[in-house]
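May I ask you to review the protein record following this short note?
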Amino acid sequence: MTESTQTPKQIVEVLDQYIVGQSEAKKAVAVALRNRYRRMQLTKAMQDEISPKNLLMIGPTGVGKTEIARRLAKIVNAPFVKVEATKFTEVGYVGGDVESMVRDLVENAIQLEREDEYKNVHVDAEKQANNQLVKLLVPAKKKENRQNDMQNLMSMFTQMQNGKMPSANDDSNQEEVTDDIREKRMSTAEKLRAGLLENDEVEIEMDDPSQQLSGQNSMLNQMGIDLNDTLSGLMPKKKIKRTVPVSEARQILLRQASEELINKADLYHNAIVRAENTGIIFIDEIDKIAPGKSQNSGEVSREGVQRDILPIVEGSQVNTKYGPVNTDHVLFIGSGAFADSKPSDLIPELQGRFPIRVELNDLTKDDFVRILTEPTNSLTKQYIAMIGTDNIKVTFTIEAINKIAEIATDVNHNTDNIGARRLHTILEKLLEDILFEGPDMQMGEITITEKYVDNKVGKLAQNKDLSRYIL
């Protein structure tokens, strides 16, 4: 398990590369993250006493709430799950089980831990993959299987009696390697190392990916029960054959070899520890489960959900198929617009579990200008790069960018405020002709000016009826 050693200032500097403004929110999450590291440096007795200070982000849609949390998890390579509070319902009603968010977090932690383990066994796995590639490129004659079906069956029963997983004794993988085959394989291995066979095609046998998806039962998964592992142990794994280039075959074989080399027990244990100590659960739309103005006694999907979420946030043990997970030290970040309700409409116990409140500001015209120009891979850079694939060079003048920002501000003000997402709508409408005709133009240079923006989008924005439907 790795824990970030970055200071709050360094975390904010990275967030600034992708998210404009919202300095208060960035500062709060950076401090919360640094506190995770501080806690891990203390004695075990002190660690158990310190609980994470969960955050509640308040602000309209499209101002960066989700993006801050998502980028935060990437910075520290921490298990991260985003859930919608509205998809859960009270226990006993049809809908999602609140404990499923913890199980999703563990799955995410396992993926992160698996990638780390793959790096540790990469050298041995690559050696195995290359040896397997040589055998596939220069196949030898298979030895005949001299055991009959009855002998195989008896062998499997003997294995079961000895407490082992039954498997048929298959001699089909044993080869008769002649001197000629051996020489050819040595020559092929040299060519592989030199990278001369990367585009050659080879037939490989791999596990059927569709088999992993079949038979999944969402109800059982919500209860922490997974029948797939049990059934896969009883049933032979279905294999499929694919003909792929050597470069792709190496990656498939490398993954298979890595999976065989890693210790699954250690992997699951480390993933659970990682989820418990560095996991982040982002609960979006938390304002939608606050009763607000509608006070009905049968508010199943609101106060009931709050009561179900409460023990998870307070700290409880959740059973997963990999083992029990304790949520005492998981960081929870709540998020909501709170347009029709207030944080105080949440039940007091849940309010108390989100002690740090951060309000995110509405985006101004200047913010939109910065969003279009400053971040790494900003929106304008994305469109310039995409249109550039058609050999067309697009340039935005600063006046055009100011005009786009002005239109976005006006439309957000006059219709619904959807924050920075309004820029996606406007840019798509602005560049639709270029995106449509680009492949047929072969090459050229186009400059987007203020006048072009005004002609394409400005007139739409001025017409309130049209802007409601188009922008």
User: Anything to note?
Assistant: The first helix runs from residue 8 to 16. The two ends are 46 Å apart (CA to CA). The CA atoms of residues 98 and 309 lie 6 Å apart. The chain has 22 helices and 13 strands.
